[in-house]
Prior knowledge:
With 401 residues, the protein is of the alpha+beta class. It is 28% helix and 33% strand.
Amino acid sequence: MPEGFDPEADPVCWIRNGSGLVGWGEAARIETGGADRFLEADERWRRLVANMEVDDEVGLPGTGPVAFTSIAFSDHPGDSTLVVPEVIVGRRGGVRWITTVGDGRPDLRPAPSPTAPGEVRYEDGDFPATRYRRAVAEAVRRMRDGAEVDKVVLAHDLLATTPEPLRTRYLLDNLSLRYPDCWTFAVDGLVGATPELLLRRAGDEVNSRVLAGTAWPRPGSTQRQLVTELVDSAKNRGEHTHAVRSLARELEPFCKELEVPTTPEVLRLRNVLHLASDVAGRLDPTLAENGQAGLLRLSRAVHPTAAVGGSPTGRAIELIDELEEMDRGRYSGPVGWQDADGNGEFGIALRCARLGEDDGGGSRARLFAGCGVVADSDPDTEVAEAAAKLLPVREALEGMR
Length: 401
């Protein structure tokens, strides 16, 4: 068994509809931050795998050495992290495998079900909903007064505390059961279930699922009414168009082919409905072969999209820094996994919480939610939308399955 491996420890995870990767232990860790965090992480990861002796009999994306990755949203000094587990269990398309780092084979056995952490109590975070509403109103005022920004994405946080320790797997189990079509993830204390795929790279193929534009259930509303409201909303359609164009514009230089839908679909989740567009491309073979189109470098080019930053990007980020009175950390940054060949999947870290210990022996979870703000946004509506986006993690904390 790899040294220090504990199958009951909190895992790292990336799963969707029962397929994906789950890892335990820590064979290596890379930490970086700042404006060069993507490039530094890519260079250090490539140096690490270049010195590994790899025996990979499966030969699929996600076999061999894998780094579970969580990158900070902003260029501020931060806690971007790559974790290489000692043991990984993978499943995709009917194929299953186990990857180990080091000598020996792991003693994999069913772990006991994680216990509930007790009554969940909520309190204001660093940037509560009341101040968030004022920030949204100020952003709307500036856009109506001619500010050079078409859209800005503002977020706020909520603090949850539990009397007993909160295990990562408790959240993962509850989220994956209620949101199987989302990508459920856990990397270095950041746990969630995101509906948005920033990028998937498999050889010369690259894909993205862009989400922007939201509706959510309200008393008396039917599913059909919500779909009509979402599709017919000029605000939501415009917001979605900004996000898709942002992604396609930055990804296009890496591709010899790029397919961008002209009309979005509607993604239905338990808590919200989103406008969604699936973008697909084929990478330039020269860039793919020389390492310039690995997943981290592609993500550096497209992050932040208009779905989590705004448009135009530079001015929107300046407005976020000015109006958003908190540090997002790794919320709304890329999260997922990558292998030694630059393949992998990165989602956008949404519908998530950052877990930590509480002084009283229990746990603290910092939840995040944000919304796209445009000139005709209503601050009260944006606050309600953010509350709807907090529901997945709140319900998972409270034991709903």
